[in-house]
Design a protein that fits this description.
The chain is of the alpha+beta class. Helix content is 18%, strand content 25%. The strands form 2 sheets. It has a 7-stranded antiparallel sheet, with no helix packed on it. A 6-stranded mixed sheet has the order 4-3-2-1-5-13, covered by helices on one side.
Length: 265
């Protein structure tokens, strides 16, 4: 009985503490008057490179921001943007669960726009040599996404499932999705074992509800009912639900910054 009691307390603490930290970081009403999803700000966060000023450089970035409303205390919404060398505008792709049958949306919002009031964070940032080829792979991954007409907020497939699929198909992204990216671990019963979202690790999962991930980028993470618990040894931190990680910052570094000349028109 004694061990069971302490185990129960430990599980409760592991669930409540991350939620409490998430609530403390983003307390209700901190941004002023409550907003509806219709009036929540969607303007640019000012973190994407100026595509015109970097016309000669191919760029890929992956973002994630808290989801709207109460779900933002538990999960994030990710998306990918890119521009080829010579382009002066970004293309954005994410999965949206409303407004049409095909949930994969192109240029649904600004490249680095706030997600209904939430400022995005950069998960991956690649620029310069080799990135044009990476973009080809990303576009092929988008075209091969297995659930273009299906969306479930929990346990998936959803926006996190979509970006995790791109990460598996394009290992050069070195994508490390946070523990609170609910849906990143979604796998069908017919394919329960395979690459992790980084493309460099291994994952076993039943519908994103029970499983584990092990890899250089992700460290070791266990998934229980869609909630991720683990440890990252690459950049030392705990991987926790609600807040994603607790420890060393995992802000993506710019990779391959050497600019490429713009192609002749």
């Amino acid at each position: 009985m004694g061990y069971g009691k302490w185990l129960g307390r430990g599980v409760l603490l592991a669930l409540v503490l991350p939620f409490g930290l998430s609530l403390a970081q983003h307390p209700p009403g901190a941004d002023g008057e409550p907003r509806s999803w219709r009036t929540a700000p969607r303007h640019s966060a000012g973190i994407a490179p100026d595509p015109a000023a970097n016309a000669g450089t191919a760029i890929v970035q992956v973002y994630a921001a808290q989801t709207y409303g109460w779900r933002g205390y538990f999960a994030v919404h990710p998306w990918v943007i890119y521009k080829r060398s010579g382009d002066t505008a970004f293309t954005r792709y994410d999965v949206i669960g409303w407004g049409g049958n095909n949930v994969v949306r192109r240029n649904h919002a600004l490249p680095d726009g706030l997600w209904f009031g939430a400022t995005p964070q950069v998960l991956a940032d690649h620029r310069g040599a080799g990135v044009d080829a990476m973009i080809d792979q990303i576009e092929a991954a988008i075209a091969s996404y297995p659930w273009p007409d299906e969306y479930r907020a929990y346990p998936g497939p959803n926006s996190n499932t979509f970006v995790a699929h791109i990460g598996r198909e394009v290992p050069a992204l070195n994508l490390d999705m946070p523990a609170n990216a609910i849906g990143k671990d979604y796998r069908p019963l017919t394919n329960p074992v395979g690459l992790s979202a980084s493309g460099h690790g291994v994952q076993a999962s039943l519908f994103g509800l029970l499983g584990f991930t092990a890899g250089v980028e992700e460290g070791l993470e266990f998934n229980v009912l869609g909630l991720g618990f683990g440890i990252d040894l690459n950049r030392p931190a705990l991987r926790l639900p609600s807040i994603g990680r607790l420890g060393m910052d995992n802000q993506a570094a710019v990779v391959a910054v050497a600019a490429e000349p713009a192609p002749a028109r």
